[in-house]
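Q: I'm teaching a short session on how sequence maps to structure, and I want students to see two examples side by side rather than one. Could you give me a first protein with its sequence written out and its structure tokens following it? Keep the formatting plain so it prints cleanly on a handout.
A: Of course. Example one:
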Amino acid sequence: MERRHSVWDSAATEKPLVGGDVTEGVVRSGDTVRRPRGASSDRVEALLTYLERVGFTGAPRYLGVDDRGRDVLTFVDGEVAGRPAPEWVGSDDRARSVASLLRRYHDAVASFGVPKLFHDVSPVRLDGAPDPLPVPQDLIGHRDVTLENVVFRDGAAYALIDFDLARPSSRIDDVCTMLQWWAPWQPIEDRPEPLVPADVFARAAMMVDTYGLDAHSRSMLVPLARNAAERTWYSMRLRAERDGGGWRRMWDSGAGDSIRRRQAWLKENEDALIAAVT
């Protein structure tokens, strides 16, 4: 069955779902989520349908479109960190479970390969930015394993949500993103309050060990994190100028300054971070 042509009726009762920075108009309707269709819709549909086919339970199911043309996905019930972040994001056990969930996702999606549908979302050249490091782009990464995009049940990471940024990637790209938010590899002034006292070196080592990253990939983590931080400043500026909306709001609220601080923090702590993860 072509799922995108499965039409669902709109429900009378809809509750806005808040927390995302970019996508607007996302609502919960019963046990489903309704999202406006966008540039990533076909890719998300293909990815979630594949994950369901291979039995991966840590992601929403794609159900079709409703009579208002919105994507319909299952609502994954559980705890999700909002803003301000709850105290439990500082739990080492929860961080460890995020690494385990990400590993299960990568193992499940590896056989999906990189379908042609995803070829047009490869990294673009950004004027003034360094080129991306040459790492294998051999699977579809989530690319956005933030505090707000992991659903927890019974104190453990249960599912990843919001696959809008999924694109050709590598395991270490996703691990870097995970460490940025969950270790967290950020200066103290930009961390959520519960993560201010975190030992970012021990926590990163714990998460990388739990994931089971190989030795070569471990050696690439810090250079990749620094390269990604350098590129992110340019990509965020481009999206703010080109796409507006949530991207513009994030940029105007100081996202560029925050990225610059992270660049400096990664450079200052490079040796200690390398020692921790290798």
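Q: Perfect. Now a second example for contrast.
A: Example two:
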Amino acid sequence: MKSYLLLAPISILALLFFYSSTQANTANDLPTLGNASSNIITLEKERQLGSAWLAALRGQVKTYEQPVIEEYLEQLVYSLAPNSAVVDREFRFVVLDSSQLNAFAVPGSVVGINAGLFLHAGNEQEFASVLAHELAHLSQRHYARRLEKQELSTPLTLAGVLASVVIAATTGAEAGIATLASTQALSVEKSLSYSRQNEEEADRIGIETLYKSGYNPRSMPVMFERMLKNARLQGNTPPEYLSTHPLSENRVADTRNRAEQFTPKTYADSLLFHISKAIVTSDYAESKAAAANYYRNTIKNGKHKNLDAAKFGLAYALLQESPKESNRIFSKLHQKHPGIIAISLFLAESEYLSGSKSNAIERLNELLEFNPNNYPISLLLAELYDLEKRYEDAEDILIKLTRTQPGNPLVWYMLAEIHGQAGNIVSVHQARAQFFLLTGRLERAIEQLEFGIKKAKPNSRAASIMKGQLDEAYALKENPPF
């Protein structure tokens, strides 16, 4: 059963490249660009650009389709956002299928990471520090400030960011940085100067956000120090043109000094972080058998940061090949942590794979009753209904999800497949068109809409909706955002 719920050396951190070249004021004398009156780029325009950029990214890089991970990332960002100055808090999230360490934030509140961020963060505090840094870039609208000070071309700038993130996800961060450098008509001296100011600003604001949100501000310099140390051990000392995200001993020292100004506290990671890390570790292991052996040894030797997360990792690794053993472990974890949805989800999946299909479906329905429209629960239940040929039930769940997750390509992809199984051909074309629009495949979206209009009843609601979508698609084709 294909389940959507279902260690590379550290690389140089490639955070948000386009912020680097922005002209910045001093850290305590920032321009006011947090409203829609900016004469360069409004918040509404940023959101439109962010949507187009995200679609283009999804069309070029494989995403990591794991709803539990996506939900954890979303929860973490929303725990930080109230203590940041981000204006647009309607975030869009994307997780790229790459073991490289990378995180980025794009105008329009698009927040993304490579799955590898889980592999390289030592704990939740360090993981949160990277996201807090990214939110700081968004909150200061470095992108708009860059355009305003340098009068740069929006298409050129966003195209460069896209190229960098794509290459960072496929061949490593250094290549991404090199590619971006070749797309920008800025001198190295200016780029380096502006970058340092922007990064110092993001560090300062990010550290404050961490502290106010209940995370350890000292985690940021620790994360930076580890990145710098590992880069040097690999012989990958950042070259001089690494002006988009300068990482130096001075910067590590500066963030450490800033963090130590806050009163020390005791900080504890959430179990969900360690569960998420275990899922990613297992998925990027050489094999599930290797992952299972790793977690058995980790538990036996006591070399774990969280015993229950290690047990979860073992159960997850065993899910497909030894579902009954997996089920026994998940059952014990569920008894201890009945309120953690991720454990309940994989318990249900292990039940299904062990032959207790009705129990699994009943469990998920009960979960969904207490957590209406929950993304991971809904998706797994729809999968099981599909396997059981209960297509109308699967359609019902996925249609509801399109209302709460309208920008999620996976939901539309699955809905198109289910519509096909149910024989709803017009709806197949509608759902496929939406999937293609969200993944930057404009020509294929237009093709699906034209097919759908031909097969729909004339003057029907479906035909009317698709005609409107087709007009918008052609308008987008004639005037691409970048």
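Q: What should students look for in example two?
A: Point them to this: Confidence is low (pLDDT under 50) at residues 6-38, 173-194, 237-244. Also worth mentioning: Strands lie at 92-96, 103-106, 110-114.
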